[in-house]
Amino acid sequence: MSDADRDARPESFAHAARAALANAQARANIAHATGTIRRKRAGVVAEVPDWGLLRDAAAAIKDETLGRLDEVLVELESSVRGAGGEVHWARDAAEAGEIVTGLVRGEGAEEVVKVKSLATDEIRLNEALEEAGIRPIETDLAELIIQLADERPSHLLVPAIHKNRVEIRDLFRDRLDLPHLSDDPAELAEAARLHLREAFLRARVAISGANFAAADTGTICVVESEGNGRMCTTLPDVLITVMGIEKAIPRFRDLEVFLQLLPRSSTGERMNPYTSLWTGVRAGDGPRRFHLVLLDAGRTRVLADPAGRPALRCIRCSACINVCPVYRQTGGHAYHTPYAGPIGAILAPQLAGERGAVASLPFASSLCGACYEVCPVKIDIPSILVHERGKAVARERQGVEGWSLQALGRAFATRAGYERAQRLGRRLQRPVAHDGWITHFPPGPLAAWGRSRDLPALPAQTFREWWVSRERA
Ligand code: SF4
Q1: How far does the centroid of ligand 1 lie from the alpha carbon of residue 193, in Å?
Q2: pLDDT, mean of residues 331-347
């Protein structure tokens, strides 16, 4: 299949990107926001003399974990249980949705407060909760904006990056019934704070993601900037954490490395404002019941491919997204996944088994290498992109070749079938055969192949036909 044919598919990245490019306002908002974060990141990274060694250490810890993930996860399960928590294993999105809705129903709750979690975006947990009659309330400001606008996130860290404050003011005016709200950032934040405060005080169940989970102690770590995560992980009676299995790290002390790399790479801060750590449950302090849902959803498939596996090192900092020249033009919605940008282009197709709308993402890159340079866990994204492109091309070739060989097999199986195929071929070639040659093919699987090749046309009469007519004569 040619690039042009692939890009013309309605579900392809290129097709969605063309539509996104027409939205000049969103492109301006994204360029402004990513530019600001990029400059901040460069400044704080330059302050760390051993940044390169930290990256090496982070990559080594992640590779060690992925190399023995089975052991690390079993240790994590045992540590969480030892600290009074419960552990659940979810093979896929459906199973995770059933586990979480079952737990919320078991508590008799009709709503939950949520702290921003990419894993729950990935498995569309909000939809599963709503189908079960449970109202999810996003408490991260950007996630709240996305939820009120009924949109999908467009950036790992700043899900509403495509919106400016005038658009947010209009949304709040409409959805929070605040007709006199201004677009002053402090006033917008205060409106969200008042809206969420009630929900925090009411909620009996909270749902979070996790940035890291230390196997030796069973400690879960969430980093965030607004304090909403701290409210979610401490106020409600029950806390449910949904975490991709690749977020486990072997030791609590490994956090030392990641907590230096993550805030600098993500928000361009030396330290993120809130780092919440909890280990199981403790009487009189925080939630009374804690559930950890360990999510596979394609991760063991990624683990099985040595060339694609490093994508699981990702700590979701979004540095690669902010430097990506493709993302800066298209924004995140064209990626059809919460994992937009370069990390989405290598991770989402692998998680989905190279199927569906994300299958074309490995082609959503200029292979400039900027993503590799900034990645704090040293994921060689360009190499994985090339590897994934190779898989996509082989799959498509297999499809066309398989189909052609099957058709040929059927035609050659019987004399009648063979002669029918000859007659059909002569009829089909009529519009494109001239002077005994076919020099171009109509749009379709052979069009690209035929652009640089000429093919002899089928003769007007086969040898058999000539023989039969000669005998009759
Ligand atoms: S791939 Fe690297 S740079 Fe991109 S989000 Fe993941 S950790 Fe950050």
Answers
A1: 30
A2: 94
